[in-house]
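--- STAGE predict ---
source: upstream dedup step, 1 unique chain passed
mode: sequence only
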Amino acid sequence: MTRLEKIIRLLNRWASWLAGGALVAMMALTVGNMFLRAIYLPFGGTAEIVSFLAVIVAAFALGYTQLSKGHVAVDIVVSRFPRRAQAAVDTLSSFLAMILFAVAAWRAAVFATHQWQIGALSGTLFIIFYPFIYLLAFGCVLLSLVLLLDFIKSLTQAVKK
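--- STAGE serialize ---
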C-alpha cells in the first residue's frame, strides 16, 4: 500500500467515524424530540439540525463507501468484456467520476464562500450554515481522492495486462 493510499484511507476512516457520530446524533435528537412531544414540548428547530447533520452523514460517508466498494454498480455488459477492456472501462468511469466530484467540491466551496460573504443564516434557528457546505465540499474531495486511487489502480491493470 502506498503512502498516498494510506493517507486517503485514514482520512476516509476518520470521516466515516464522524458520519457515524452525526447519524447517532440525528437519531438521538429525533427520538428525544419524539418523547418530548409526547410529554410536553418538542425541541425547536429539530428538522433544521437534523438536515445539517444529514449533510455530514452523506458527505463523509461517500469516500469510505467507495473504498469498501459499497456503491451500487451495474456491470451486466462490462462483466462479459475481456479483463483488459474491463480495466479500461473502470479507468474511464473512475476518471469521469473523479472529475465530476472534484467539480462538485469546487462549486460547493464557491457557494459556501458566497453564503459566508452575504451572512446567510438558517431559517428557524438562525445558524450560519456555510460551514456545512464546506463540509459537503470536503466530503466530495475525499471521494475524489478515492476515485483517484481507483483510477490509478485500474489504469495500471489496463496497461499491465
